[in-house]
Amino acid sequence: MQDLTALPPPTSLKDLDTEELKNLLRPIRSTPENRRAHFQNWSGEFKANPLAIFQPENEHQIKLILELCRRESRKFRCFGSGHSPSDLACSDDYMINLDHMSGLIEVDQKAKTMEVWAGTRLKDFNQLSHQHNLSLSVLGSISEQSVGGAISTAIHGCGYDYGCISTYVESLTLILADSSQVTVNESEGQELFKASLCGLGLTGVITRVKLRCEHSFHLEETSYAIPFDVFVKNYDQIARSAEHVRMYWYPQVDQVKVEQLNRTAKPRDQSTWGTLLRDKLMRCFQWYTQPAILLLTKFLPTATDLYMTVCYHLLNKPTISIEDIDEIHMETLEGLIKLETLKRSPKNRINTSASIFNFDCGPPHHTYEGAIPYELTAEALREFRSFLLAENRKAGGGLKMHFPMEIRPVAADNIWLSPSCGQRVTYLGLVQFKAFGMEINEDYKNLFKTFEKILSAKFYLRPHWAKRHSQNFKSLERSYNRSNDNINNFQKFLDVRNQVDPHFRFLNDYIFRHFVKGNHHASGVEDLGHSRII
Length: 534
Prior knowledge:
Elements: H1 11-15, H2 18-25, E1 39-40, E2 47-48, E3 52-54, H3 59-72, E4 76-79, E5 94-97, E6 104-108, E7 113-117, H4 122-131, E8 134-135, H5 147-152, E9 169-175, E10 181-185, H6 190-196, E11 205-212, E12 214-215, E13 218-227, H7 228-233, H8 235-239, E14 244-250, E15 255-264, H9 273-296, H10 303-316, E16 320-321, H11 330-344, E17 349-352, H12 353-357, E18 365-373, H13 377-392, E19 405-410, E20 425-435, E21 438-439, H14 443-458, E22 462-463, H15 473-480, H16 489-500, H17 509-515
Parallel strand pairs: 3-5, 4-5, 13-16
Antiparallel strand pairs: 1-2, 6-7, 7-11, 8-12, 9-10, 9-11, 13-15, 13-17, 14-15, 14-19, 18-20, 18-22, 19-20, 20-21
Helix pairs in contact: 2-3, 6-16
């Protein structure tokens, strides 16, 4: 492995005295030096009061900030849109935001690649790529994240043969902890490249990203509903039944909504006054009516199931619904779906890829998501269903879900810290709503805790790195070293991190909590003074 720490920082930085360094940084500093800055994430749940938030406009300014951190022995974290529902981006020392480093750098039509600044929002990347007749092959539910943040946490979409966003990265440019700059890819700096494709901001500040695209395409979305038992028996076939398949399990009605997305040459649906009105009404319902109703369940918890049942039948139930089936083979299921399609002639959705992949997730909410080995999906779902049924039998109805569980398969990759490293996975996600910024109740914490405990106990859970979780070094080592193909990859990541940041510039509470061996409780990063991540 190349000795990255041997790369010297620019001589000009060494020549600057500290006061001159601070003067150069004042124009991009959010607050005066005698007043702390304030940061909170999108949901408002996670907050920090750093010494300063810097908004650099170029790579040289990032080098200046890191040089200041070195001289003052400060920690440093980078954030984009602040969408991560965790304290991953938080620091009490220095933070930087890359909003002023966004936009297109270069397009290669022949190679179908686009290089952008890391602060570019994915939604802006989607527009830029569309202008050049290009699109990413897969996207998640939203495109509010920055490209750098999406790469650092290996966010995902859905698709049996489609990997996480980071698998589409051709090269990265980073500023390392010593203020040196390096560009890495599969052939140059491969180990740092693999570590940084899901690096959690621990290997350096990503400034430029070159992404591999395909020609712009439309997606056609079809959907149907089937009973839970039929779904889990046929999960593998269902997950492979289209290019992209996402599934939503509604426990209150014991139904799973299956959405199949396939590329199509058909033209996109034309907007009409009717569709525009429907979209406006749905947004009004999501952002105002639904929170108001859920707020009422704070005082009448048992009404949650009734509300979710009504929502499913009035708003979410597909035109095609196969009911009351106990035993069925996949071929029979596909035949029934085709028959129902001919009988009912449902209107499928056709639109640009981003418009189908993305959807309005509503107002700020709480979320938990983790990945488990693909082949264990059915067993894990059955176990969680048993837990929910037991909750329903409790006085008062026990813990309730506000939203269907999202179920999405993702292809395997070779990115060391990616949840899908060395194995195809299924992501399982829960959402619990807030109401106009207020907590409906604190039950979501117990729901998430139990869900995580179930997935950790038997199903080799790997967390969605952008989201809050309680995994520690021991549990992560166990889940990442599950197969022979994956042995030592977790340690390889830590070794690269130790090499490029030996003085722990990029650490914070989140990292200490989850990555320090022997640590089982949250603790301040100041305790790391003489520690080493091993």
